[in-house]
Write a structure and sequence with these properties.
Elements: H1 2-8, H2 10-64, H3 66-79, H4 83-110, H5 112-119, H6 126-151, H7 156-186, H8 192-234, H9 244-282, H10 289-328, H11 331-367, H12 374-382, H13 385-401, H14 406-429, H15 434-460, H16 467-495, H17 498-519, H18 525-529, H19 534-543
Helix pairs in contact: 2-4, 2-6, 2-7, 2-8, 2-9, 2-10, 2-11, 3-4, 3-6, 3-9, 3-10, 4-6, 4-9, 5-6, 6-8, 7-8, 9-14, 10-11, 10-12, 10-13, 11-12, 11-13, 11-16, 11-17, 13-15, 14-15, 16-17
């Protein structure tokens, strides 16, 4: 029975691999953004984030949807041992990636002035946008390769390439930002504004270098795997192979809803910035527009997306595993995977929310000393976004795995329309400033989650387990938060060292939460074994008689 359970939960193991890689990637991202933001300041960080938001939307249009779409198609064919068709999907996807990546490169390179000046009302972002353009082309191929491996049930190539990508990104982003910032300061008639624009552009160079290094890693892994894959194709006895035109149509129809869903979510960031920019003009605070937006996008968003990486990783493994179960007609397997993936996300998201609420101020003070406390207040008010953004991510992936690829797009579009109405009232009527943007994002994720879960429950007669998924993690997290608060302030009063107090509080939080989660039966031994370093945690728990 245990063995079967382990086999059935292999998607959770793969999700855990990606989750572990996601944590490493986010931590690297956090640590390199500290010197990067300190080089650029709030103004330069605002320029960098503004350019990156446009890049993220165009990246979604060209390639970000491909791993999920391609992995779903390959998982469905691999489940039926149709390896010739798997190969055909890969070839078709590479051709599609070349065309789409090239077209998007032209759009972002030649349209940089339009996006910067007209859309964002921030002309200084054009330089950074042009430097980001080649990355779009590279990412199209990288996304296809990652989708191929994920569809075959292994997340290791994606995980390894993500870590390598982020390491190169970190090194080159900081080095190039520093070099170009100094160049901007010493240029003829240069000054802080020109230096900020140049430095932000330099920071984007690392993104391209990182993507290229990750693509090289995936290509090397593919050639190492090629012999085994060729043998799988040779043993395939599928009589009718799928044609290029048919597969291209399927790729487009599969990727398009995923693309639209992600674009709907990400376009909200650009529209939110546009709303906020006009609001700052409305209240005659245009000089504070970019610094405030920089604190929001480069500190608040950065810290809240770190735990959301877990949900993203789970989504990438959940969708193809549910698609494979659906192709086999395994309804029980689908329900089990849905329940486990949602619970795994909440076990991480709920304590992360409490931790950011309690320690947000000290962490911002430690990592971003140039910020005067505005980002800490944002975290205190808006850290709950972690829970609902995680639920939005995982429930959208579940629907895509079920083959209901249009449904999450529809739900996101409905929520986005309501979100913009909410934001307009919060800004121009209630005059809540940047907190209106935060509340609107939380509202969007709550509404999307409700719509997604409602559909899943009706379509599969699914009933969400409440006690182990939400109640126990919440109880453990509240007690953990109290311990974390006490340890931090106790240490700080004794030694007056913020960094040491933060480290002690985080360590205490991890221990308290882990012990409580096991004592209250929020997770059992088999589930713990599926987590990153699970076997080690099980051994420790048994030694101290928690299991």
């Amino acid at each position: 029975m245990a063995k079967n359970g382990k086999k059935d939960n292999s998607f959770l193991v793969q999700g855990s691999i990606l989750a572990a890689a996601g944590i490493i990637v986010r931590l690297i991202g956090l640590f390199y953004r500290v010197p990067l933001n300190n080089i650029l300041g709030d103004h330069g960080a605002g320029i960098y984030s503004s350019a990156y938001n446009i890049y993220a939307i165009l990246l979604l249009l060209s390639s970000s949807s491909l791993p999920l779409a391609i992995s779903k198609m390959i998982a469905e064919r691999a489940a039926k041992k149709q390896y010739r068709n798997v190969r055909a999907v890969l070839r078709t996807s590479l051709v599609f990636s070349c065309f789409l990546g090239g077209a998007t490169f032209c759009i972002i390179f030649f349209g940089a002035d339009f996006f910067a000046g007209t859309v964002l009302n921030a002309p200084e972002t054009a330089f950074a946008l042009r430097l980001l353009a080649p990355t779009i082309f590279v990412m199209a191929f990288l996304s296809t390769m990652r989708g191929f491996f994920q569809g075959l049930g292994t997340m290791i190539p994606t995980a390894v390439s993500q870590i390598i990508e982020q390491i190169f990104n970190a090194v080159f982003s900081v080095a190039c930002a520093y070099g170009l910032f100094r160049l901007g300061m010493t240029a003829a008639n240069g000054g802080p504004d020109l230096a900020a624009a140049y430095g932000a552009g330099g920071g984007t160079i690392g993104t391209g270098v990182g993507a290229l290094s990750a693509l090289v890693v995936c290509i090397v892994i593919f050639f190492m795997f090629r012999g085994r894959f060729t043998n799988m194709v040779r043993r395939d006895r599928t009589e009718a192979g799928e044609r290029f035109g048919t597969l291209l149509k399927i790729v487009i129809l599969t990727a398009l809803p995923v693309t639209l869903s992600g674009t709907v979510t990400n376009i909200s960031t650009v529209v939110d910035q546009s709303f906020f920019g006009h609001y700052m003009e409305f209240v005659s605070q245009t000089d504070q527009y970019m610094p405030v937006w920089g604190a929001y996008s480069s500190i608040y968003v950065l810290l809240t997306t770190l735990p959301i990486a877990i949900s993203t990783a789970m989504a990438m493994s959940t969708a193809p595993s549910i698609a494979a179960a659906n192709a086999r007609g395994d309804r029980a397997g689908m329900l089990s995977k849905i329940a486990l993936s949602i619970r795994f996300c909440m076990i991480v998201a709920i304590p992360s929310t409490i931790g950011l609420t309690v320690l947000g101020g000290p962490v911002v003070k430690m990592l971003f000393p140039y910020n005067e406390g505005s980002a800490a207040r944002m975290l205190l008010v808006g850290s709950v976004v972690v829970v609902f953004a995680s639920l939005t991510t995982i429930t959208s992936a579940i629907l895509q795995g079920m083959g209901k690829v249009v449904i999450p797009v529809t739900h996101a579009a409905v929520a986005l329309a309501a979100h913009f109405g909410f934001l307009a009232v919060a800004l121009f009527v209630m005059k809540t400033g940047i907190y209106g943007v935060i509340f609107a994002i939380i509202f969007f994720n709550i509404l999307t989650t409700i719509l997604n879960l409602r559909y899943i429950m009706r379509a599969l007669s699914y009933r969400q387990e409440i006690r182990k998924t939400f109640v126990i993690p919440a109880v453990c997290s509240v007690i953990m938060g109290a311990a974390c608060f006490g340890v931090y302030h106790g240490c700080f009063r004794l030694i007056h060292r913020n960094i040491v107090s933060v480290a002690a509080a985080i360590l205490a939080a991890l221990i308290v939460y882990f012990v409580l989660l096991l004592k209250l039966k929020g997770i059992d031994e088999l589930e713990l074994l599926d987590a990153p370093m699970g076997a080690r945690f099980v051994r420790i728990a048994k030694k101290i008689r928690l299991l």
